[in-house]
Amino acid sequence: MTGFSSSAPAGADPIVITICISCRAAGADSENAPGRELLTAVKAAAEGEGGIVVRPTQCLGICKRVCTVSLSGAGRYTFLFGDLDPSRDAGDLVAMAKACALAPHGFVPWKERPPVIRKGAIARIPPPGWSPEDGSAPA
Predict the structure, then answer these.
(1) Which residue, 2, 40, 85, 100, shows the most beta carbons closer than 10 Å to its own?
(2) Distance (Å) of CA 7 to CA 47, 52, 87, 95, 131
(3) What pLDDT was estimated at residue 139?
């Protein structure tokens, strides 16, 4: 993954936490976007955690859900979450990333996700290679 650093062990694909730094409340300037605060908090919470990359992005296209984040990884489900609180939710986001790293196909069952992650769920997108006949989640 070029362009940013990874603390993933050699040969392992990291879980990537991508945080929108564009969206903000109406009338707020971009320098005070809550996503920037969330980015700082998540980087601090992930410090020293192997296999997690935290990076900003300009937009995830879910502007009505301020503080939107994606979790993704090679061959894994991609999750989208919104309405996260920069002062409270960084640790739960890192916990979810760690759970994705350990779960087959990155699929963390709903009941095993931190409560704020369950509440903020927007979408889960199966990995490109996942195409069971019945459309079910990985077992």
Answers:
(1) 100
(2) 9, 6, 24, 16, 30
(3) 62
